[in-house]
Amino acid sequence: MSDDTPTRLTYREACKQAIRDALNRDPRCLVMGEDVGLYGGCYAVTKGLLEEFGPERIRDMPLAEGVIAGSAIGAAIAGLRPIAEIMTCNFSLLALDQIINNAATIPHMSGGQFAVPLVVRLATGGGRQLAAQHSHSFEGWYAHIPGIRILAPGTVEDARYMLAAALDDPNPVLIFEHVVLYNDEGDLDPEVVSVDIDSARVRRPGKDVTIVTYGGSLPKALAAADELVGLGIEAEVIDLRVLRPVDTATIYASVARTRRCVIVDEGWRSGSLSAEIAARIAEDLFFELDAPIRRVCSREVPVPYAAHMEEAALPRTADIVAAASGLARPQ
Amino acid sequence: MSDFTMPSLGADMESGKLVEWMVKPGDTVHQGDTVAVVETQKGAIEVEIFEDGTVSELVAKEGETVPVGGVLAHVRTAGDKTPAAAPATAAPAPVEASPAPASPAPPAPRPAPAAFARTGRVKVSPAARRLAAEIGIDPEGLIGTGVDGSVSLADVELARSRGTKAAPAPSARRTGFDPAEMRKAIAAAMARSKREIPHYYLASTIDMEPALAWLAAYNEGRPPTERMLAAVLTLKATALALREHGQFNGFWQDGQFQPGKGIHVGWAIALRGGGLVSPAIHDADGLSLPELMDVLRDLVARARSGRLRGSEIMDPTMTVTSLGEQGADSVMGVIYPPQVAILGFGRIVERPWVVDGQVVPRRLTQLSLAADHRASDGHAGGRLLSTIEQLLLEPEKL
């Protein structure tokens, strides 16, 4: 892009451009998944790519996540650069054995003889009334596993550029795309043509309280920060971007300044990524804290179907405002 | 609605500095609850409230100096119509294993789980505790405005800024007292006493042998924590004697004697590092000897750690000073105004004594009385001493 005015596009379109770009740049690259070809992808991310690149490179797969992951792992080991799509992370549990016992371990167990340059894209999260079997957030589980890198693009820019960095990584990378983000629009800065997949980003600076979040909760956290201004509270919003390995340095630098931290995680509280981050802050930053760590997570129920109940079960902007103001202005 | 005011914690007290609130608006208080800490020349005093109700507003701010009688807080009492404000921390229990409620309202901050809601411990944030240590402030003496009432960095910063303005020593310390200030208070009270009160003095030598023999028998076989001191016997004898001789139990005020309401014996306690306080043992005549021993132990410990209550400072109707084993043989006391008498027990000494025509070794004490001649005469004083002596000769009846 030579035009220096920002390009406005949807998160979905950014994902598609990233895939098209990868397919154009590297002939070893291919897309494989359920309904990615003729149907154009469950969330329409790959719509039009079959016509553009043909069935060799846009491959419809059987409804068998273990097969998708397993064959993509084999292709990666054999030298290709597969982009596997698993329709939602809820179904990825069927591919868990392949991802953990093969993708994450083979590079280690082979003493580095076999790399697994695999990228798996998965939709995650709730908020679209798809009921419990399509609405959960399992990225926190995957972030538990050594040997894989976990990404959670929360902005159009990351949706556009994280894929290329992931493909450049010789090890398996899982990219969790939140389902409510696909329709969100954002600007692409023409100056930016790549992003790292190592660091967290401060999406909004502030001095009173740090809100740590990622993915689909990022817009909620930013909206909460807007509301907090009205209460005289300047919240700093950190977008984790990379869930494994977590960039604790950025978190620590922020919390050491604000001394207060709210973690927003659409996963369930128990045993969640938010629990890990809270524990690390408590371990490493205890003496900097001026208030307890607070978390805003999903209610510990299977995500309900009914709209009002789903809304109440997931983290809400109002919940984040309440938690942050409770720390920054307790009285 | 009623006002909670700055109490008079001494005859010469004109104002006091509110060091700490121990309640906040919305708190329920009961008669006798300690609600604030006030710094006086006698050190930091925990002040009680004397009615039941709900704190509706804290008028005085921590660190503020308020004249005696000045309003510290408004308290809503049982008779008031206005409903009590809902406590800010009230919140529904977090929903766990059931579907979430549909209400779009944001949930109130989660209350601390009951198991962790320990009372009596001052919560200090880690960062606040570290800063306080660095600048030499006791963070547990500060008002917490942080989460769950915890002392936060801002509270320590505030204390630091006030401390540097007010005095070189951190003003936020609540324990301990300033010996120089206490010396001033003693000087003022004693000078007033000698200036205004026409003292007369009487003394008797009392045979302590029966009391001490009874005490030895009582203490024998008991663990140290249950043993009693001779001071308890003299204290109880004094309190019982004051029932009969009421003109020594009370105050000289407005040109006349005002009898005390109850017998609240002020017990003189020397403080380490100098100084003296005489907190009240309330209704001492009604307490059993073991109860008195417990009260005395508690009172001495709290006096020395600077944690006396306001009522203990305000209420004594008469003072007893006991010189103890290391003390002098006798004392001619100076009355603490507006009281009208002070009794002194000298060191217990073994001396030759005539009993039934025989010179025998006996353990004796000098009992002395300094009394206000405006309120009583020497004859009455002599009868008071005689009554105490008779009571001590029959210790089993105390």
Automatic annotation (TrEMBL), chain A:
The keyword Oxidoreductase is annotated on this UniProt entry: yes
InterPro entries: THDP-binding, Transketo_C/PFOR_II, Transketolase-like_Pyr-bd, Transketolase_C
Domain of life of the organism encoding this protein: Bacteria
Keyword terms of this UniProt record: Oxidoreductase, Pyruvate, Thiamine pyrophosphate
Xref: CDD domains: TPP_PYR_E1-PDHc-beta_like
One Pfam family this sequence matches: Transket_pyr
Residue ranges occupied by any Transketolase-like pyrimidine-binding domain in the UniProt entry: 9-184
Keyword Oxidoreductase: yes
Co-factor requirement: thiamine diphosphate
GO terms assigned for molecular function: oxidoreductase activity
Gene3D superfamilies: 3.40.50.920, 3.40.50.970
Span of the signal peptide: none
Descriptive protein name: Pyruvate dehydrogenase
Species this chain originates from: Novosphingobium malaysiense
UniProtKB/TrEMBL annotation, chain B:
GO function terms (MF aspect): acetyltransferase activity; lipoic acid binding
A GO CC term attached to the entry: cytoplasm
Keyword Transferase in record: yes
Bias (Pro residues): 101-112
Compositionally biased tracts (Low complexity): 83-100
Catalytic activity, EC: 2.3.1.-
Signal peptide, first to last residue: none
Region (Disordered): 80-120
Domain Lipoyl-binding: 1-76
Limits of the Peripheral subunit-binding (PSBD) domain: 123-160
Cofactor annotation: (R)-lipoate
Keywords annotated in UniProt: Acyltransferase, Lipoyl, Transferase
Cross-referenced InterPro entries: 2-oxoA_DH_lipoyl-BS, 2-oxoacid_DH_actylTfrase, 2-oxoacid_DH_E2_comp, Biotin_lipoyl, CAT-like_dom_sf, E3-bd_dom_sf, PSBD, Single_hybrid_motif
Entry annotated with the keyword Repressor: no
Quaternary structure note: Forms a 24-polypeptide structural core with octahedral symmetry.
Family: Belongs to the 2-oxoacid dehydrogenase family.
Protein name: Dihydrolipoamide acetyltransferase component of pyruvate dehydrogenase complex
